[in-house]
């Protein structure tokens, strides 16, 4: 039964896009899921999601309209952009796909349409860098004819407990009316609750600091593990002891990878440096966490050798 009057177009069908498209599809509110990768739009109707985020049963349960033809986006009036935001070889934000997606969406926009970015970006990216593209491509004025919002994506691929519907969703809009519409639209699919951020910049910043904080905390524990090993101290014993204090934060050593945690501190740093501030802390975790893969590999190689030394 259709509850939403909005027709949603999801732009980018990687890890993040399909669950979003499915959620709105279940409400009968999905106009189209769009991707430039033809193989992607061919396999989803065959009930196969290479990311395993959408199950075969979920894909079979509804007729999800997917397309690689940008003209099909014109059927939507509420666009959700879920394209990748990696870093380049110099660890600088690579916003080229967000800008390309903005050009595509811009061409499909009509008066009254709303564009919400879910891709992780630095604070200010939506209004400073994406809005001019939308305006140029559409010939429409943002805040008068078209409107933007930002809602960070928090899914964790492979995590069956924390799904789009069950994660509290931060939403934002460029003005009070847009914020209410964006909150209402997401409120139809997210059962965990909606947090209305006071501005788009706040919502953008919230996403990158969540992961920067996590990166730094894990890096601290990783560095402790690096130090404790030659001291013959078991890090897990130390964490168990320290964890008995009421305000000790519980993190464990490990590898940090994926699309977000290792990338987002660079987005935050980029924006700080554009303001002339050179962060002392944001990237400190990166230096430690980036070497953990090699450290774990060395440990794996050395451990059997050590174990094979006969005890005296
Ligand atoms: N994967 C995660 O765990 C995760 C979690 C939270 C947030 N995010 C953020 O969400 C965003 C998307 O991440 P993802 O993991 O889904 O990316 P992804 O690389 O898995 O998929 C992106 C999809 O976008 C498509 N695409 C690229 N350019 C396009 C364009 N111009 N128009 C339409 N489609 C285009 C690609 O073909 C691909 O299918 C990123 O900003 C990421 O940081 C990701």
TrEMBL record:
Domain UDP-glucose/GDP-mannose dehydrogenase dimerisation span(s) in chain numbering: 202-290
Gene Ontology BP term (one): polysaccharide biosynthetic process
Entry GO MF terms: NAD binding; oxidoreductase activity, acting on the CH-CH group of donors, NAD or NADP as acceptor; oxidoreductase activity, acting on the CH-OH group of donors, NAD or NADP as acceptor
Gene3D superfamilies: NAD(P)-binding Rossmann-like Domain
Domain UDP-glucose/GDP-mannose dehydrogenase N-terminal intervals: 7-180
Family named by the database record: Belongs to the UDP-glucose/GDP-mannose dehydrogenase family.
Protein name, UniProt field: UDP-N-acetyl-D-galactosamine dehydrogenase
Lineage: Bacteria, Pseudomonadati, Pseudomonadota, Alphaproteobacteria, Hyphomicrobiales
């Amino acid at each position: 039964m259709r509850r939403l009057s909005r027709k949603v177009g999801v732009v980018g069908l990687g890890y993040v896009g399909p669950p979003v498209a499915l959620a709105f599809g279940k409400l009968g509110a999905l106009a189209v899921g769009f991707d430039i990768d033809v193989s992607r739009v061919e396999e989803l109707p065959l009930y196969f999601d290479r990311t395993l985020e959408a199950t075969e049963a979920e894909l079979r349960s509804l007729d999800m309209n997917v397309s690689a033809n940008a003209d099909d986006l014109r059927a939507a009036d509420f666009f959700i952009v879920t394209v990748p935001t990696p870093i380049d070889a110099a660890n600088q934000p690579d916003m080229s796909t967000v800008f390309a997606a903005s050009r595509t969406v811009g061409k499909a926009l009509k008066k009254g349409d709303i564009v919400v970015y879910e891709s992780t970006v630095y604070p200010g990216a939506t209004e400073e860098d994406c809005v001019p593209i939308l305006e140029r491509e559409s010939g429409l004025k943002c805040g008068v004819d078209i409107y933007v919002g930002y809602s960070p994506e928090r899914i964790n691929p492979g995590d069956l407990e924390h799904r789009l519907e069950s994660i509290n969703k931060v939403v934002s809009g460029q003005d009070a009316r847009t914020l209410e519409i964006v909150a209402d639209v997401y409120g139809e699919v997210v059962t965990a609750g909606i947090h209305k951020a006071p501005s788009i910049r706040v919502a953008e910043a919230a996403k990158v600091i969540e992961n920067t904080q996590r990166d730094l905390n894990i890096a601290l524990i990783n560095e402790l593990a690096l130090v404790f090993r030659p001291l013959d101290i078991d890090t897990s014993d130390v964490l168990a002891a320290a964890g008995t204090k009421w305000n000790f934060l519980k993190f464990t050593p490990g590898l940090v990878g994926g699309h977000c945690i290792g990338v987002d501190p660079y987005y935050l740093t980029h924006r700080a440096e554009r303001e002339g501030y050179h962060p002392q802390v944001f990237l400190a975790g990166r230096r430690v966490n980036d070497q953990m893969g090699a450290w774990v590999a060395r440990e794996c190689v050395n451990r059997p050798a050590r174990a094979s030394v006969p005890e005296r």
